[in-house]
Amino acid sequence: MLDFLRGQKESIRRLCGGLELELEFYHKAPLEIDVGCFGLDDAGKLSDERYFIFYNQTQSPEGGILLHRGAATGAVRFHLRLDQLPPHIAKLSFTASIDGTRTMQELTKGHVCLFRGQEETARYSYDGSQFRAERAIVICELYRKGDDWRFNAVGRGFNGGLKALVEHFGGTVAESTPAAPSIPNRPPVSPLPRASVPSPNRPTTGPSLVQNIVSSLPTHVCARMDNLARQCRGDTEYLTSLYKNMFACLASHPEVAEMPVQVVTCADASGSMFDLYRNGRMQRVVDKFFAFATTLSDPCSMDLWAFGAKSRQFGAVTMDNVRDYTFAEAGGFERWMSMLNYQYNNEPEAMRDIMMIYGALRKPVMVLFLTDGRLSSDWEIEEILIKTSRFPIYWQFVGLHGEEYGILERLQEIDGRRSDNAAFLKLDDIDDISDNTLYENLLHNLEGWLREIQYKHILEP
To answer: Do the domain assignments include residue 205?
Structure first.
Protein backbone atom coordinates (compact mmCIF):
# COMPACT_ATOMS: atom_id res chain seq x y z
CA MET A 1 0.00 0.00 0.00
CA LEU A 2 1.25 3.49 -0.88
CA ASP A 3 1.05 6.28 1.73
CA PHE A 4 0.61 9.59 -0.07
CA LEU A 5 2.07 12.93 1.00
CA ARG A 6 0.40 16.23 0.25
CA GLY A 7 0.93 17.11 -3.42
CA GLN A 8 1.92 13.60 -4.47
CA LYS A 9 0.38 12.21 -7.69
CA GLU A 10 0.02 8.74 -9.14
CA SER A 11 -1.67 6.89 -12.01
CA ILE A 12 -5.06 5.38 -11.22
CA ARG A 13 -4.41 2.47 -13.59
CA ARG A 14 -1.16 1.77 -11.75
CA LEU A 15 -2.82 1.95 -8.34
CA CYS A 16 -6.05 0.14 -9.13
CA GLY A 17 -5.38 -1.87 -12.28
CA GLY A 18 -8.11 -0.06 -14.20
CA LEU A 19 -10.57 2.83 -14.06
CA GLU A 20 -13.10 1.31 -11.65
CA LEU A 21 -12.32 1.94 -8.00
CA GLU A 22 -13.69 3.17 -4.68
CA LEU A 23 -12.61 6.09 -2.51
CA GLU A 24 -13.48 5.93 1.19
CA PHE A 25 -13.32 9.06 3.34
CA TYR A 26 -13.14 8.87 7.13
CA HIS A 27 -13.04 11.73 9.63
CA LYS A 28 -12.84 11.73 13.40
CA ALA A 29 -13.79 15.09 14.91
CA PRO A 30 -16.17 16.65 17.47
CA LEU A 31 -18.20 18.18 14.63
CA GLU A 32 -20.24 17.23 11.57
CA ILE A 33 -18.17 16.97 8.39
CA ASP A 34 -19.80 16.64 4.99
CA VAL A 35 -17.95 15.11 2.05
CA GLY A 36 -18.80 15.92 -1.55
CA CYS A 37 -17.51 15.54 -5.10
CA PHE A 38 -17.38 18.31 -7.71
CA GLY A 39 -17.22 17.13 -11.33
CA LEU A 40 -15.31 19.89 -13.14
CA ASP A 41 -14.68 20.81 -16.76
CA ASP A 42 -11.36 21.60 -18.46
CA ALA A 43 -11.37 25.08 -16.93
CA GLY A 44 -11.79 23.64 -13.43
CA LYS A 45 -15.37 24.87 -13.15
CA LEU A 46 -18.65 23.25 -12.13
CA SER A 47 -20.42 23.81 -15.45
CA ASP A 48 -22.95 21.02 -14.89
CA GLU A 49 -24.61 20.95 -11.44
CA ARG A 50 -25.64 17.30 -11.94
CA TYR A 51 -22.00 16.45 -11.19
CA PHE A 52 -22.04 17.98 -7.73
CA ILE A 53 -22.41 14.72 -5.76
CA PHE A 54 -23.21 14.93 -2.04
CA TYR A 55 -25.57 13.35 0.49
CA ASN A 56 -28.68 14.81 -1.17
CA GLN A 57 -27.62 13.98 -4.75
CA THR A 58 -25.83 10.67 -4.57
CA GLN A 59 -25.36 9.70 -8.22
CA SER A 60 -24.23 11.26 -11.48
CA PRO A 61 -26.58 10.87 -14.49
CA GLU A 62 -24.74 7.95 -16.15
CA GLY A 63 -23.74 6.27 -12.88
CA GLY A 64 -20.04 6.99 -13.17
CA ILE A 65 -20.06 8.43 -9.61
CA LEU A 66 -22.07 6.81 -6.83
CA LEU A 67 -22.01 7.90 -3.18
CA HIS A 68 -22.88 5.40 -0.44
CA ARG A 69 -22.08 4.59 3.18
CA GLY A 70 -18.55 3.44 4.00
CA ALA A 71 -17.45 0.36 5.91
CA ALA A 72 -16.40 2.28 9.05
CA THR A 73 -18.87 4.22 11.20
CA GLY A 74 -19.11 7.74 9.84
CA ALA A 75 -17.21 6.92 6.64
CA VAL A 76 -18.53 7.55 3.13
CA ARG A 77 -17.53 5.86 -0.12
CA PHE A 78 -17.60 6.90 -3.75
CA HIS A 79 -17.80 4.11 -6.30
CA LEU A 80 -16.22 5.42 -9.50
CA ARG A 81 -16.38 4.14 -13.06
CA LEU A 82 -14.17 6.77 -14.62
CA ASP A 83 -14.46 5.40 -18.16
CA GLN A 84 -18.22 6.07 -18.05
CA LEU A 85 -17.92 9.79 -17.30
CA PRO A 86 -18.66 12.12 -20.24
CA PRO A 87 -15.71 13.89 -21.94
CA HIS A 88 -16.60 17.32 -20.47
CA ILE A 89 -15.85 16.04 -16.94
CA ALA A 90 -12.08 16.46 -16.77
CA LYS A 91 -11.56 16.39 -13.02
CA LEU A 92 -13.23 15.14 -9.83
CA SER A 93 -12.51 17.24 -6.75
CA PHE A 94 -13.37 15.62 -3.41
CA THR A 95 -14.05 18.01 -0.55
CA ALA A 96 -14.96 18.14 3.13
CA SER A 97 -16.80 21.04 4.75
CA ILE A 98 -18.44 22.07 8.03
CA ASP A 99 -21.18 24.54 8.93
CA GLY A 100 -21.04 27.28 11.54
CA THR A 101 -17.98 28.98 12.98
CA ARG A 102 -15.90 25.96 13.99
CA THR A 103 -12.81 25.06 11.96
CA MET A 104 -10.94 22.10 10.53
CA GLN A 105 -8.29 22.63 13.18
CA GLU A 106 -10.56 20.51 15.41
CA LEU A 107 -10.14 17.51 13.08
CA THR A 108 -8.59 14.71 15.14
CA LYS A 109 -7.71 12.65 12.08
CA GLY A 110 -8.90 11.99 8.57
CA HIS A 111 -7.93 9.97 5.54
CA VAL A 112 -8.98 8.91 2.08
CA CYS A 113 -8.31 5.33 0.97
CA LEU A 114 -8.27 3.96 -2.57
CA PHE A 115 -9.70 0.48 -3.06
CA ARG A 116 -9.40 -2.00 -5.92
CA GLY A 117 -12.22 -4.33 -5.02
CA GLN A 118 -11.63 -5.18 -1.35
CA GLU A 119 -7.91 -4.35 -1.47
CA GLU A 120 -6.71 -0.99 -0.13
CA THR A 121 -4.00 0.20 -2.53
CA ALA A 122 -3.24 3.73 -1.27
CA ARG A 123 -4.02 6.15 1.54
CA TYR A 124 -3.64 9.89 2.13
CA SER A 125 -3.90 10.94 5.79
CA TYR A 126 -4.29 14.42 7.32
CA ASP A 127 -5.35 16.04 10.59
CA GLY A 128 -6.20 19.38 12.17
CA SER A 129 -2.55 20.37 12.68
CA GLN A 130 -2.38 21.07 8.94
CA PHE A 131 -5.18 23.67 9.08
CA ARG A 132 -6.04 26.85 10.95
CA ALA A 133 -9.23 28.82 10.23
CA GLU A 134 -10.39 26.65 7.32
CA ARG A 135 -13.98 25.41 7.29
CA ALA A 136 -13.62 23.46 4.04
CA ILE A 137 -10.82 21.52 2.38
CA VAL A 138 -10.12 19.97 -0.99
CA ILE A 139 -8.89 16.55 0.12
CA CYS A 140 -7.88 15.08 -3.23
CA GLU A 141 -8.50 15.22 -6.94
CA LEU A 142 -8.72 12.76 -9.82
CA TYR A 143 -7.97 14.22 -13.24
CA ARG A 144 -7.67 12.96 -16.80
CA LYS A 145 -4.19 12.27 -18.20
CA GLY A 146 -4.43 10.87 -21.74
CA ASP A 147 -6.34 7.58 -21.53
CA ASP A 148 -5.57 7.37 -17.80
CA TRP A 149 -6.62 9.29 -14.70
CA ARG A 150 -4.28 10.46 -11.91
CA PHE A 151 -4.81 10.80 -8.17
CA ASN A 152 -3.53 14.01 -6.51
CA ALA A 153 -3.37 14.41 -2.71
CA VAL A 154 -4.29 18.10 -2.36
CA GLY A 155 -5.05 18.95 1.30
CA ARG A 156 -5.83 22.62 0.57
CA GLY A 157 -8.19 24.63 2.81
CA PHE A 158 -10.79 27.38 2.39
CA ASN A 159 -11.88 29.65 5.23
CA GLY A 160 -15.44 30.12 3.99
CA GLY A 161 -16.80 26.57 4.13
CA LEU A 162 -19.02 25.06 1.44
CA LYS A 163 -19.94 28.46 -0.01
CA ALA A 164 -16.25 29.24 -0.59
CA LEU A 165 -15.78 25.88 -2.31
CA VAL A 166 -18.77 26.40 -4.60
CA GLU A 167 -17.55 29.88 -5.55
CA HIS A 168 -14.02 28.58 -6.09
CA PHE A 169 -15.41 26.11 -8.62
CA GLY A 170 -17.34 28.82 -10.46
CA GLY A 171 -20.78 28.31 -8.94
CA THR A 172 -23.00 30.47 -6.72
CA VAL A 173 -25.19 29.56 -3.78
CA ALA A 174 -28.64 31.09 -4.26
CA GLU A 175 -29.54 32.51 -0.86
CA SER A 176 -33.24 32.76 -1.70
CA THR A 177 -33.53 29.14 -2.80
CA PRO A 178 -35.34 27.09 -0.15
CA ALA A 179 -33.36 24.33 1.49
CA ALA A 180 -33.87 20.84 0.18
CA PRO A 181 -35.79 18.46 2.40
CA SER A 182 -33.69 17.22 5.31
CA ILE A 183 -33.00 13.57 6.03
CA PRO A 184 -32.72 12.00 9.46
CA ASN A 185 -29.63 12.89 11.50
CA ARG A 186 -28.42 15.38 8.93
CA PRO A 187 -28.25 19.18 9.10
CA PRO A 188 -30.33 21.19 6.59
CA VAL A 189 -29.02 20.80 3.07
CA SER A 190 -27.39 23.77 1.37
CA PRO A 191 -28.95 24.61 -2.01
CA LEU A 192 -27.25 23.31 -5.10
CA PRO A 193 -24.77 25.69 -6.70
CA ARG A 194 -25.57 27.21 -10.07
CA ALA A 195 -22.67 27.52 -12.46
CA SER A 196 -21.63 31.10 -13.17
CA VAL A 197 -18.49 33.12 -13.76
CA PRO A 198 -17.42 35.26 -10.79
CA SER A 199 -16.96 38.95 -11.44
CA PRO A 200 -13.34 39.68 -12.37
CA ASN A 201 -13.58 43.03 -10.60
CA ARG A 202 -14.53 41.63 -7.21
CA PRO A 203 -12.65 43.73 -4.61
CA THR A 204 -10.20 42.02 -2.31
CA THR A 205 -10.29 42.57 1.42
CA GLY A 206 -7.90 42.09 4.31
CA PRO A 207 -4.15 42.58 4.52
CA SER A 208 -1.89 41.87 1.57
CA LEU A 209 0.08 38.66 1.25
CA VAL A 210 3.32 40.50 2.06
CA GLN A 211 1.81 42.01 5.22
CA ASN A 212 0.60 38.58 6.31
CA ILE A 213 4.05 37.07 5.79
CA VAL A 214 5.89 39.86 7.62
CA SER A 215 3.52 39.72 10.58
CA SER A 216 3.85 35.92 10.84
CA LEU A 217 7.63 35.58 10.69
CA PRO A 218 10.37 36.59 13.15
CA THR A 219 12.27 39.81 12.42
CA HIS A 220 15.52 38.03 11.56
CA VAL A 221 13.72 35.86 8.99
CA CYS A 222 12.15 38.93 7.37
CA ALA A 223 15.64 40.48 7.15
CA ARG A 224 16.89 37.28 5.50
CA MET A 225 13.94 37.44 3.09
CA ASP A 226 14.80 41.02 2.16
CA ASN A 227 18.45 40.14 1.60
CA LEU A 228 17.59 37.20 -0.66
CA ALA A 229 15.08 39.25 -2.65
CA ARG A 230 17.72 41.92 -3.31
CA GLN A 231 20.11 39.29 -4.65
CA CYS A 232 17.59 37.99 -7.22
CA ARG A 233 18.81 40.20 -10.04
CA GLY A 234 20.12 39.49 -13.49
CA ASP A 235 21.03 35.81 -13.85
CA THR A 236 19.22 34.87 -10.63
CA GLU A 237 16.02 36.83 -11.18
CA TYR A 238 14.27 33.57 -12.07
CA LEU A 239 14.53 32.56 -8.39
CA THR A 240 12.11 35.34 -7.37
CA SER A 241 8.99 33.23 -7.90
CA LEU A 242 10.51 30.35 -5.89
CA TYR A 243 11.25 32.65 -2.96
CA LYS A 244 7.76 34.15 -3.07
CA ASN A 245 6.23 30.70 -2.79
CA MET A 246 8.67 29.62 -0.10
CA PHE A 247 8.08 32.71 2.06
CA ALA A 248 4.32 32.37 1.74
CA CYS A 249 4.54 28.73 2.83
CA LEU A 250 6.93 29.51 5.69
CA ALA A 251 4.42 32.03 7.07
CA SER A 252 2.08 29.07 7.65
CA HIS A 253 4.81 27.25 9.60
CA PRO A 254 6.19 29.92 11.97
CA GLU A 255 7.62 27.27 14.31
CA VAL A 256 10.06 26.25 11.58
CA ALA A 257 11.16 29.84 11.14
CA GLU A 258 12.08 30.17 14.82
CA MET A 259 15.04 27.76 14.56
CA PRO A 260 17.74 27.87 11.84
CA VAL A 261 17.90 24.58 9.93
CA GLN A 262 20.81 23.64 7.67
CA VAL A 263 19.53 21.99 4.49
CA VAL A 264 21.80 19.63 2.56
CA THR A 265 20.99 18.11 -0.84
CA CYS A 266 22.25 14.64 -1.76
CA ALA A 267 21.53 13.72 -5.40
CA ASP A 268 21.63 10.41 -7.24
CA ALA A 269 24.23 10.66 -10.03
CA SER A 270 24.08 7.06 -11.27
CA GLY A 271 23.73 6.33 -14.98
CA SER A 272 19.94 5.95 -14.89
CA MET A 273 19.72 9.64 -13.95
CA PHE A 274 21.59 10.81 -17.07
CA ASP A 275 18.55 12.02 -19.01
CA LEU A 276 17.20 13.94 -15.99
CA TYR A 277 20.47 15.85 -15.78
CA ARG A 278 20.78 16.35 -19.54
CA ASN A 279 17.26 17.76 -20.02
CA GLY A 280 17.62 20.18 -17.11
CA ARG A 281 15.19 18.56 -14.69
CA MET A 282 17.91 18.04 -12.07
CA GLN A 283 18.94 21.68 -12.45
CA ARG A 284 15.34 22.66 -11.66
CA VAL A 285 15.51 20.43 -8.58
CA VAL A 286 18.67 22.25 -7.45
CA ASP A 287 16.97 25.63 -8.03
CA LYS A 288 13.93 24.68 -5.95
CA PHE A 289 15.97 23.10 -3.14
CA PHE A 290 18.36 26.08 -3.07
CA ALA A 291 15.48 28.51 -2.48
CA PHE A 292 14.17 26.22 0.27
CA ALA A 293 17.59 25.87 1.94
CA THR A 294 18.61 29.52 1.91
CA THR A 295 15.29 30.60 3.37
CA LEU A 296 15.79 28.45 6.47
CA SER A 297 19.26 29.63 7.54
CA ASP A 298 21.42 32.70 7.04
CA PRO A 299 24.33 31.43 4.93
CA CYS A 300 23.19 32.05 1.34
CA SER A 301 24.48 28.66 0.25
CA MET A 302 23.50 24.98 0.21
CA ASP A 303 25.84 22.01 0.63
CA LEU A 304 25.46 19.48 -2.17
CA TRP A 305 26.54 15.84 -2.33
CA ALA A 306 26.17 13.38 -5.20
CA PHE A 307 26.51 9.62 -5.28
CA GLY A 308 26.83 6.68 -7.60
CA ALA A 309 28.75 3.69 -6.30
CA LYS A 310 30.79 6.31 -4.40
CA SER A 311 29.72 9.58 -2.80
CA ARG A 312 31.35 13.00 -2.75
CA GLN A 313 30.66 16.53 -1.56
CA PHE A 314 30.90 19.16 -4.31
CA GLY A 315 31.20 22.92 -4.00
CA ALA A 316 28.38 24.72 -2.20
CA VAL A 317 25.47 26.01 -4.28
CA THR A 318 25.45 29.83 -4.09
CA MET A 319 23.84 32.78 -5.83
CA ASP A 320 26.93 32.97 -8.02
CA ASN A 321 26.75 29.42 -9.42
CA VAL A 322 23.18 28.18 -8.91
CA ARG A 323 21.95 29.02 -12.42
CA ASP A 324 24.01 26.33 -14.18
CA TYR A 325 25.26 24.31 -11.22
CA THR A 326 24.62 20.81 -12.58
CA PHE A 327 26.19 21.69 -15.94
CA ALA A 328 29.29 23.56 -14.69
CA GLU A 329 30.26 22.62 -11.11
CA ALA A 330 33.35 20.35 -11.04
CA GLY A 331 33.05 19.78 -14.77
CA GLY A 332 29.31 19.15 -14.81
CA PHE A 333 27.15 16.10 -14.22
CA GLU A 334 28.89 13.88 -16.80
CA ARG A 335 32.15 14.37 -14.95
CA TRP A 336 30.36 13.66 -11.64
CA MET A 337 29.13 10.33 -12.96
CA SER A 338 32.60 9.36 -14.07
CA MET A 339 34.15 10.28 -10.70
CA LEU A 340 31.46 8.50 -8.67
CA ASN A 341 31.24 5.28 -10.73
CA TYR A 342 27.84 5.71 -12.33
CA GLN A 343 27.18 1.97 -12.77
CA TYR A 344 24.99 1.71 -9.66
CA ASN A 345 23.72 3.80 -6.75
CA ASN A 346 25.02 3.21 -3.23
CA GLU A 347 22.65 5.11 -0.91
CA PRO A 348 24.07 3.70 2.36
CA GLU A 349 27.59 4.97 1.62
CA ALA A 350 26.28 8.46 0.88
CA MET A 351 24.18 8.41 4.07
CA ARG A 352 27.15 7.31 6.19
CA ASP A 353 29.39 10.01 4.71
CA ILE A 354 26.76 12.68 5.42
CA MET A 355 26.33 11.39 8.96
CA MET A 356 30.10 11.69 9.59
CA ILE A 357 30.11 15.35 8.52
CA TYR A 358 26.86 16.64 10.04
CA GLY A 359 26.08 14.23 12.88
CA ALA A 360 28.20 16.01 15.50
CA LEU A 361 26.96 19.54 14.79
CA ARG A 362 24.18 19.39 17.41
CA LYS A 363 21.95 21.57 15.29
CA PRO A 364 19.01 20.62 13.06
CA VAL A 365 20.05 19.34 9.64
CA MET A 366 17.59 18.36 6.91
CA VAL A 367 18.94 16.14 4.13
CA LEU A 368 17.00 16.30 0.85
CA PHE A 369 18.01 12.88 -0.47
CA LEU A 370 17.05 12.32 -4.10
CA THR A 371 17.04 8.91 -5.81
CA ASP A 372 15.35 7.20 -8.75
CA GLY A 373 14.95 3.92 -6.87
CA ARG A 374 16.26 0.37 -7.14
CA LEU A 375 18.04 0.85 -3.82
CA SER A 376 21.29 -1.00 -3.22
CA SER A 377 20.44 -2.22 0.31
CA ASP A 378 17.17 -1.84 2.23
CA TRP A 379 18.53 -3.29 5.47
CA GLU A 380 21.55 -0.94 5.52
CA ILE A 381 19.31 2.10 5.01
CA GLU A 382 17.03 0.89 7.79
CA GLU A 383 20.02 0.39 10.11
CA ILE A 384 21.34 3.90 9.37
CA LEU A 385 17.94 5.47 10.02
CA ILE A 386 17.73 3.72 13.40
CA LYS A 387 21.24 4.87 14.36
CA THR A 388 20.78 8.46 13.20
CA SER A 389 17.42 8.84 14.99
CA ARG A 390 19.45 9.83 18.08
CA PHE A 391 20.88 12.83 16.22
CA PRO A 392 19.22 16.00 14.90
CA ILE A 393 19.34 14.84 11.28
CA TYR A 394 16.13 14.52 9.26
CA TRP A 395 16.13 12.45 6.05
CA GLN A 396 13.61 13.71 3.48
CA PHE A 397 13.79 11.17 0.67
CA VAL A 398 12.53 12.26 -2.74
CA GLY A 399 11.86 9.62 -5.40
CA LEU A 400 12.08 11.08 -8.90
CA HIS A 401 11.11 9.35 -12.15
CA GLY A 402 11.90 5.91 -10.76
CA GLU A 403 10.52 2.70 -9.33
CA GLU A 404 11.22 -0.03 -6.75
CA TYR A 405 11.77 2.29 -3.80
CA GLY A 406 11.80 -0.56 -1.29
CA ILE A 407 12.11 0.53 2.35
CA LEU A 408 11.45 4.18 1.46
CA GLU A 409 7.81 3.27 0.88
CA ARG A 410 7.64 1.49 4.25
CA LEU A 411 9.40 3.97 6.53
CA GLN A 412 6.57 3.80 9.06
CA GLU A 413 7.37 0.11 9.63
CA ILE A 414 10.91 0.80 10.92
CA ASP A 415 10.93 0.13 14.69
CA GLY A 416 13.55 1.13 17.23
CA ARG A 417 13.97 4.77 16.22
CA ARG A 418 14.14 7.42 18.91
CA SER A 419 12.62 10.00 16.55
CA ASP A 420 10.51 9.78 13.40
CA ASN A 421 13.45 11.00 11.35
CA ALA A 422 12.49 10.26 7.74
CA ALA A 423 9.78 10.81 5.13
CA PHE A 424 9.35 9.91 1.46
CA LEU A 425 7.92 11.96 -1.41
CA LYS A 426 7.47 10.12 -4.70
CA LEU A 427 7.25 12.07 -7.98
CA ASP A 428 7.21 11.10 -11.64
CA ASP A 429 8.53 14.52 -12.59
CA ILE A 430 9.61 17.55 -10.57
CA ASP A 431 7.07 19.55 -12.61
CA ASP A 432 4.23 17.26 -11.45
CA ILE A 433 4.10 19.21 -8.19
CA SER A 434 3.73 22.99 -7.82
CA ASP A 435 6.43 24.92 -5.97
CA ASN A 436 3.92 25.87 -3.29
CA THR A 437 2.85 22.25 -2.76
CA LEU A 438 6.45 21.02 -2.72
CA TYR A 439 7.45 23.54 -0.06
CA GLU A 440 4.31 22.88 2.00
CA ASN A 441 5.14 19.17 2.06
CA LEU A 442 8.74 19.71 3.09
CA LEU A 443 7.87 22.27 5.77
CA HIS A 444 5.05 20.16 7.20
CA ASN A 445 7.35 17.16 7.63
CA LEU A 446 10.17 19.29 9.03
CA GLU A 447 7.86 21.03 11.49
CA GLY A 448 6.63 17.78 13.01
CA TRP A 449 10.19 16.49 13.42
CA LEU A 450 11.44 19.75 15.02
CA ARG A 451 8.68 19.53 17.62
CA GLU A 452 9.61 15.93 18.35
CA ILE A 453 13.35 16.46 18.79
CA GLN A 454 12.77 19.42 21.09
CA TYR A 455 10.31 17.45 23.21
CA LYS A 456 12.75 14.52 23.39
CA HIS A 457 15.78 16.78 24.04
CA ILE A 458 17.66 15.38 21.05
CA LEU A 459 19.34 18.75 20.43
CA GLU A 460 20.97 18.69 23.87
CA PRO A 461 24.55 17.29 24.13
So the answer is: no
